[in-house]
Each structure stands twice: as structure tokens, then as C-alpha cells.
Amino acid sequence: MSSVRPWRDIARRTSRQIMVGNVPVGGDAPISVQTMTNTPTEDVGATIDQIRRCEDAGADIIRVSCPTPESTAQFERITRAARVPIVADIHFHYKRALEAADKGAACLRINPGNIGSSERVAEVVRAAKANGCAIRIGVNAGSLERDLLEKYGEPCPDALVESALDHIKLLQDHDFHEFKVAVKASDVFLAVAAYMQLAETVDCPLHLGITEAGGLIGGTVKSAIGMGNLLWAGIGDTIRVSLSAEPEQEVKVGFEILKALGLRTRGVRIVSCPSCSRQGFDVIRTVEALERRLEHIKTPMSLSVLGCVVNGPGEARETDIGLTGGGAGKHMVYLSGVTDHHVQSEDMLEHIVSLVEAKAAEIEAGMSDAGRADTIAVAAE
């Protein structure tokens, strides 16, 4: 169910596009969702297992830490196994950047000003160019250069932006332009102000994040407020939700933020009520079960789950499948916004899951048919 609603439109900031492996970042490309592994990189099996879970959750790009020679020694096994581009986070060690670039990194997370001499920067740029690597400049309020802290007295938007511009210049001086930039802070106000200022200054893609955001609930709220403000303003080409939680949770939260703003669609968007004494079934437990049971659905679609008839019919008219609680354990099911049939409480969960799976298959088949029709039309021409 959809309609044209201009008041929902977000005019995205114009940025030039770079490639991170096979993923376009910036320009008119979809906003990509990133996360980072937290396993010891030397433990290849554990790292690849975690990458798989993140890929299944929908991650577009995954970052892997490479702080030691032992970690980069295993890096090629990881990049070969991954189905998405892998970013090598090399901290302050320029040699790790050279090694990771040679072993399949799609991008290097590095601040050029922090790795030493201009000769070292030149070496990293040469390795990046030779291997088709992008670079992500990652300015962080918690690790600003000492001279900037002395100049400004504390982390502030001007300091973060000046740091970013200094790092950018080092790459541009070596004729390297395949970079994206982040100016992260754990303070929402500081991060948003810095990103807004930087967005007016440069045309490169911006990687958004509220760093060290916290645990699953608190970090989700902070990230949604900070990144949500920026994304609503059209700023941001790729995001990472930084949580003290499993990396696949970061991916799920990232997609939920983008879905709430209509910037990405993936999986089932559930509209549900907080429940009250009018509910005809246990809404909270039902939604929890549906979220678990429908995680495997990647097809964009909508499902409303409302406990009673107060708002249920209105919400159901706006979703692909709707469920509204009724009396005596008998509930109304809506298909494409129209009342269709009833279902009993004991059959409700399995029935809704089967309806969603069938609808997803129908949508996928329609998309495949459209693709075949396009192919036939092109061939006829």
C-alpha cells in the first residue's frame, strides 16, 4: 500500500559517488548500512561466522579491525569468504594499511594525519590506488589531535571539521579522491552540528554515526535522534549504529532508522499498538513472536497488528496485511487494506506468518516477471 505524499520527501544532499568494492556510496546510491566485527580477527572462523550473521541481517559493508601483523596475515581469507565489501580498520599503523590493501580490503579506515610522514601517506595512497581501495577518514571527538584541542579548548564542531579538512587535504595533495568522511561524537548535539557544518564545506560522501552510543536501547535512541536528524535533513550516504550489542543488532537498528524515514525498504515493517485493556489478544507477545518468525523475510512489505477496532481498521487500510482484535477470540484479517476473513486466536500466529510468506513470494514473483518482461522488451528492440 502506498501513495504519493510530497510532505514525506527528503531532498538528499548532493555528494559525489565513490565505490567501496561493488557498493556505490554517495550520489544517488541508496544509503548503505555498515557494522563492525568484534571477534579477534586472527580467529578467522569466528570472524567469518559473525560476518555471515551481519550479511543475513542486511549489512552492505562490514568493517574488520586489523591492529596487528597477525590480523592482516589472515585478512585475505576473510575478504575472500565475505559476500560484502570489507573495510580494514588499521588504527595508526600504516603498514597494516599496505598489507590489508594487498589482501582484498575494499576500503581502509585511516586518518592520514595520524600515521606519520608524508612519505607514509604517499605509500598508503599508492597501495589504495593499486588495489582499488577507497579510504574512510574517521574523525572522532574522543581522539582529536592535540593541537586542535589546545586551539579550541575542547572538542567542538569547528575542531572536528578542521581535523577532517586537514586529513582530506593530505589525500588530495596526493591526487586521491576516493574517500568518505565521518566526524563522530558520542554527544548528539556535537555530532549533528559537526556533520551539518562539514556537509556545507565538502562534496564527498559522509559516513554517519553517533559513536559510543551505548547499549541496545539507549544507543538506539541516541543514534535515532542524531542520525535521524541528519538523514531527515538529507545528510548522510552511509551509516553505522554504534551499540554495545552484537553487530547484527546494529544492522537491524540501522535499517529501522532508514525505514522510518522512507530511505530504505527491507523486510516486514510492523505497525503495532502499545496494547491496552481493549485488546482482543496479547499484542505484545504476538508482535514479539512475529518479529522473530518473520526475520527471514527480506521482501519489503507492511503488516499491522492492532489489538482492537479503535485504530485497527484505519491502520490496516495502509498496510499489505492487517490484523485487528475482536471479541470471543475471533479477529479480522485485512488483505491490501480490505476486510477479508476472520481467524481464531489459537490459529492466529501461524496464519499471519503464512500470509506474510505467501505475500512475499507473490511480490518476488511479480518482480521476477517484471525483470523478464524488461529483458524480452530489450531483446525485441
Textual characterization of the structure:
This protein has 381 residues and is an alpha/beta fold. The protein has 2 domains: 14-260, Dihydropteroate synthase-like (TIM Barrel, Alpha-Beta Barrel), CATH 3.20.20; 268-377, 2-Layer Sandwich (Sulfite Reductase Hemoprotein, domain 1). The protein contains 13 helices and 15 strands. It has an 8-stranded parallel beta sheet. Helix 4 runs parallel beside helix 5 (118-131), helix 7 (157-172) packs across helix 8 and helix 8 packs parallel to helix 9. The two termini are 33 Å apart. Residues 375-381 have low confidence and may be disordered.
* β-strand amount: 15-25%
Query: What low-confidence regions span 5 or more consecutive residues with pLDDT below 50?
Result: 375-381
The residue fraction in helices comes out at 40-55%
- Please give the CATH class of the largest domain: Alpha Beta
Distance linking N and C termini: 33 Å
Classify the secondary structure makeup into a structural class.
alpha/beta
CATH superfamily of the largest domain: Dihydropteroate synthase-like
* Count of DSSP H/I helices: 13
Main β sheet profile? 8 strands, parallel
Look at the structure and give the mean pLDDT.
93
User: Given the C-alpha coordinates, what overall shape results?
Assistant: elongated
Task: Give the topology string: H per helix, E per strand.
Answer: EEEHEHHEHEHEHHEHEHEHEHEHEEEH
Second CATH tier, the architecture of the largest domain: Alpha-Beta Barrel
Radius of gyration, whole Å = 23 Å
Q: What would the CATH topology of the largest domain be?
A: TIM Barrel
Task: Provide the domain count.
Answer: 2
Number of strands: 15
Strand order of the largest sheet: 8-7-6-5-4-3-10-9
